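in:
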């Protein structure tokens, strides 16, 4: 019972640890723990890519090379060719970079003691803003500034209904970076709160046993085994969620690029 009494306090402490805390300087000009781990993730991604390119061959050898080839081909076929269409080649580097950057950040954040760069709204908002600027620029490049604005209106719809639909499309377009940022942030934040909560439960029930070996403490620590098993399952789920969220962000960006380059609906 004592473990459950301490749980609210520990949960509050857990949530406070997800606030942006500067490790160098201050919040305005320094480096927070999220920025630090984002830099670590970026360096790790560069190392992975250099290792892949260095060992690249016509016939991939080894688990690492085959896995990288599979992921790249998956992005090429299922995101580039299937969604963007005939112009997929020029957008592939951007889409692949988005996927790998988000994925590596998500995975690094799962490691105990680390924080995901994608675990703060400022990072996900920056990613969403980059995606927003990119697909808007693609639309302007294909249609021109005025042509892109006109392309938001559906063709074949009579006035004034076409104006109403155009206004809705403009609002929808402006909301896209917000939904991209919030979706990624909320999924990663919620997942880490759940993992942290179960980790706290394991610690609270096991701590008396670690302090003193008695029969009562052994019985009292039994729930920690169940919470530990659940925690392992959640870790696996979070790894899967990290992949899915990177994929969803990339797919939605590809959809927006395709829509920006397409003619009026």
């Amino acid at each position: 019972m004592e473990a459950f009494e301490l749980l609210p306090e520990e949960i509050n402490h857990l949530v406070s640890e997800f606030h942006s805390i500067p490790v160098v300087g201050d919040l305005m000009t320094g480096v927070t723990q999220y920025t630090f781990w984002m830099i670590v993730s970026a360096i790790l991604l560069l190392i992975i890519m250099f290792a892949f390119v260095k060992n690249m061959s016509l016939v991939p050898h080894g688990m690492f090379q085959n896995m990288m080839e599979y992921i790249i081909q998956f992005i090429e076929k299922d995101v580039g060719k299937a969604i963007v269409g005939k112009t997929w080649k020029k957008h592939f580097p951007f889409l692949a970079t988005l996927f790998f950057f988000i994925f590596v950040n998500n995975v690094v954040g799962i490691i105990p003691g680390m924080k995901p760069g994608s675990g703060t709204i400022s990072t996900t908002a920056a990613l969403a803003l980059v995606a927003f600027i990119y697909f808007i620029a693609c639309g302007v490049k294909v249609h021109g500034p005025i042509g892109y604005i006109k392309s938001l209106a559906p063709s074949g719809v009579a006035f004034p209904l076409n104006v109403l639909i155009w206004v809705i499309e403009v609002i929808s377009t402006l909301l896209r970076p917000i939904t991209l940022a919030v979706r990624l942030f909320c999924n990663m934040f919620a997942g880490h709160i759940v993992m942290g909560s179960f980790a706290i439960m394991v610690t609270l029930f096991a701590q008396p046993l670690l302090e003193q070996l008695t029969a009562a403490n052994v019985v009292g620590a039994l729930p920690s085994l169940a919470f530990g098993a659940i925690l392992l399952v959640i870790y696996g789920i979070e790894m899967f969620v990290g992949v899915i969220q990177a994929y969803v962000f990339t797919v939605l960006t590809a959809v927006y690029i395709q829509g920006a380059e397409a003619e009026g609906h």
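note: Residues 2-261 form one domain.
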